[in-house]
Amino acid sequence: MRIVVCVKEVLDPDAVNALVLTGQLSIGPDGKTIEEGAITRVINGYDEQAIEAALRLRDAGVDCQIIAVSVGEDPINVLRYALALGADEIVSIPARDLDCLGVARVIAEYIRSSGGADLVLCGRQASDDDQGIVGPALAELLGIPVALSARALSIEPDGAGDGPALHVTVVTPYGEEVWELPLPAVVTITSELGQPRYPPAARAIKARRAMPQVVTPEELGLGPGDLEPRVVLERLRVVQVEGHCQMISGDGADDTAAKLLEVLQRDGLVKL
Amino acid sequence: MARNPLHTKLCDILGIEYPIIAFTHCRDVVVAVINAGAFSVYGGAPRTPDELDADIRWIRERIGNKPFGVDLLLPAASPPSATIEELKAQIPETHKRFVAEIKRKYNIPDPKNEPEYYKLGWFSKEGTRRQLEVVLDHKVPVLAFGLGSPEWVLEPARARGMQVWGLVGSPKQAKRELELGVDAIIAQGYDAAGHTGYIGTFSLVPMVAAIAGDTPVIAAGGVTTGRHLAAALCLGAVGVWTGTIWLTSRESDVDMVIKQKLLAATAEDLTHSRSVSGLPMRILRNQWTKEWESPEAPKPLPPPHQMIMAGEVMQAARDYGIEDFMTEAAGQGVGFVTSIKPARQIVFDLIAEATEVFEQLVGELTITS
Amino acid sequence: MIAVACTSAYERLTGGDIEELLTFLRQTAEGLGAEARWLGLGRPPLDMRAFARSYGIGRVEVLNPDDEDAGLDASVELLARYCRSASPFVLVFASSWWSRIVAARVAVRLQVPVLVNVQSVERDEDGSTLRARALAFGGSLTADYRLRGGPPYLLLTAPTATIPQAAPLPSEPEYQEVHIPLDGTGERARRIQVAETSGPRLDEAQVIVAGGRGLGSPDNYPLIQELARLLGGVPAASRPLVDAGWVDASHQVGLTGKVVKPLLYIAVGISGASQHMAGCSGARTIVAINKDSGAPIFRYAKYGVVGDAVELLDALIRRLKEAKKEAG
């Protein structure tokens, strides 16, 4: 089984948020590039979980080849990390300034030209742009079904009598659902999957020197015209939140509680 | 075919992937580091016995049956039980006046919250004894201690299948611990954060390794990069004990103001001052340490009295965000800590860098396992 | 020119979600100088006519109103056809599991752009491109994008970005049901277990009490449940509690959890990270209880209490129980 996992390198969103909270996030003179400073580039957390999802299928006995693919200026670090975790192959597609549909197009072409995939996994969204479009877009481009926000996957040997199918437990705001998809399919992974494993030492050491296979968009038959972005970032701004909080305090917890309830009752929010 | 130099005896003893020990006061860091394949020792000294009990359960829920450790002050190292009021009454007038003047000069109000340092366990034999009971009850796999004598704790720990590790700052201390039969020695050099001895890591580790025999030696003090890790192994250690690098990690609950100071700091911004705890402690230089360095300053009191004075001011600094009076213990490797990273990434980067160092020396490592 | 909002039988949108979506649609349509229409796929889960009337929508169309569920493949096909024939300038969706799949797929099929987490849009001076503001980095940043290559431009709204506002004058919407048979391609993805929400829905609750890491231990979560019960509300949790397994994911409030708009939201031991606030900032009144006076949540809250979560919960519960006893 050929499993393609899409991974993205992002600025660590926790570091970005920590700096926003202290008013220390700097955006460069072009108004849209975050100054990295104390921020590290990391693998998108949900994509790390997508790799974990693939590894769990392998642990469950599925005979598979796991290929990690990344589109970006120089995604070598995340690809090496994917290899360290357990991917069999790593593929880098150098490209810049693509929009989400452009990224999906490039990956779809890679998948088609490299012999197809039985399963395509992505994180549910990138933690920088929060879009979550690449997964379903890939499904449409490849003409295969998709399920989002999966926390568990299993291959059922005979789904609906038509050969192997995928059972996916998805997390939605209304609760969990289980979907059955024929293979090939696209599934995006959410963090409810659980703690991803750490890279074993031998793999971590070996991955340090690994070079990904490089496939350019041109080699995939995609020229600049095909990948011209239609969604272009122009400005990034920190959200300003003003506070007008009325602090309530009393003589100990009981008195404070009483005062709070009084205020809420006055506002008609609580009936005593 | 080469062996993996980063797979040491410590990895086999503990059943861990990477010979890195994170010493931290933050539970989330403990969990993240252990789930990243390394080891962690939780600094339990500032926690009440009940809090420590809850912390240990919390950690266990998140790491399953992977091992971890707790670090405590042992009873012999703490003063006889006394209340905060009794201790305060013992502080000389000169010192009280000096601190009052600092508060006036810099507009430092009384703290809003009870100073964290006033927790029972830090200040009395009774408290530390109860903390120890909690750790023994839970059979925490590793009990580590810096100050104090482990004599009476070795047997109950052994009986529970626990290991006891001692932090030392000199070969003399190491010898004593080895004679008592500790399971590992952490040789913590002068470079370290907080309370340390006077011998540099580069000198201390080989001396301790030379007398340790089969007892594992863990290097501490200034370890913040993969290069330090590689060097520690060359000096005879089988692992490293690290602290400063975790303070700015994603998972660390250290205040952002402090994180930013740490990210900007180098070894030159640190001072070895008695003004916080009464014992020499390596911390970020700040207005408090500077005041105590001035010619008019009285001599810092021994613990716990100095801590009582400092604790109040530092709590007020935290409560009101008075940045000049906020500080943190940090080691001399602090200059290498320049970004906020997830703990997983820190572990991975340490290993990657250590590998690079070895490969620069000997060529590509082709590991069999 | 028309601006269309699309909802489906699959999505289980609440009245509040619809009100937000229709407000966004109307405001967007006004800005574009377009006519606002509402398109439903499958059996309408609520009274579309009534909402359309209050929110000033001129026309409601329902495709295949007998379909219990709006299948993904069928919906993509229906929407693609709809766009080709009606040529909307924008096609707007509420953010949902269904819409994230359908909108992205339709965008690919029609080769037009799609953008998620949109707060607002306006047409560019040149007329054919769109400028949109969307959330980024979990909601702590906003990103301004320029979109070209449409129409249609497909947009998913950012939860709670719009404050619902009924139209100044109700409209008299045209209402049309259309049955479009789709040559049995059949859905490839099949739902074999439907989500079962037990108890009151979080996203419809008027009063919510949410617990965060400041609770300290899962043993303290029952206090949240008890306070919620006494206030006639629903208990909730921030993401860390769900990740830690203290609480089921269906109780999670946040950007990747549920977005809630209660009258009263009491956040206990929650620091106020933007990912959580993106889920609850639409609440009318936020009360924050946290022991850290510097916690970001106090910037969003109307009332704040600095103190120990468990002590205050105990005290609030005690007081409410006493008051109930006195009331008889």
Structure, briefly:
The complex is a heterotrimer of chains A (272), B (369) and C (328). Chain B has 369 residues and is an alpha/beta fold.
Structure description:
The complex is a heterotrimer of chains A (272), B (369) and C (328). Chain A has helices at residues 13-21, 45-59, 76-85, 100-113, 134-142, 201-207, 224-227, 252-266, and strands at 2-6, 9-11, 41-43, 65-72, 89-94, 119-123, 146-156, 165-172, 175-182, 185-189, 213-214, 231-238, 246-247. Chain A has 272 residues and is α/β, with parallel strands linked by helices. Chain A folds into two domains: 2-227, HUPs (Rossmann fold), CATH 3.40.50; 243-272. In chain A, the strands form two sheets. Chain A has a nine-stranded mixed sheet with strand order 9-8-7-10-6-1-4-5-11, sandwiched between helices. In chain A, strands 2-3 form a two-stranded antiparallel ribbon. In chain A, helix 3 (76-85) links the parallel strand 4 (65-72) and strand 5. In chain A, helix 4 (100-113) packs across helix 5 (134-142). The mean pLDDT of chain A is 94. Chain B has 369 residues and is an alpha/beta fold. Chain B has a single domain (9-362), classed as TIM Barrel, CATH 3.20.20.70. Chain B has helices at residues 9-14, 27-34, 49-63, 84-89, 93-105, 120-123, 125-137, 151-159, 171-180, 201-212, 226-234, 244-247, 256-264, 287-293, 305-320, 343-362; strands at residues 20-24, 39-43, 69-72, 142-145, 163-168, 184-188, 194-195, 217-220, 239-242, 270-273, 281-284. In chain B, helix 9 runs parallel beside helix 10 (201-212). By secondary structure, chain C is of the alpha/beta class. Chain C folds into two domains: 2-178, 3-Layer(aba) Sandwich (Rossmann fold), CATH 3.40.50.620; 202-327, Rossmann fold, CATH 3.40.50.1220. In chain C, the strands form two sheets. In chain C, strands 7-6-5-8-4-1-2-3-9 form a nine-stranded mixed sheet, with helices on both faces. Chain C has a five-stranded parallel sheet with strand order 12-11-13-14-15. Chains in contact: A-B, A-C, B-C. Chains A and C meet through helix 1, helix 4, helix 5, strand 7 and strand 8 of A and helix 3, helix 4, strand 5, strand 6 and strand 7 of C. Strand 9 (175-182) of chain A pairs antiparallel with strand 10 of chain C, so a sheet runs across the interface.
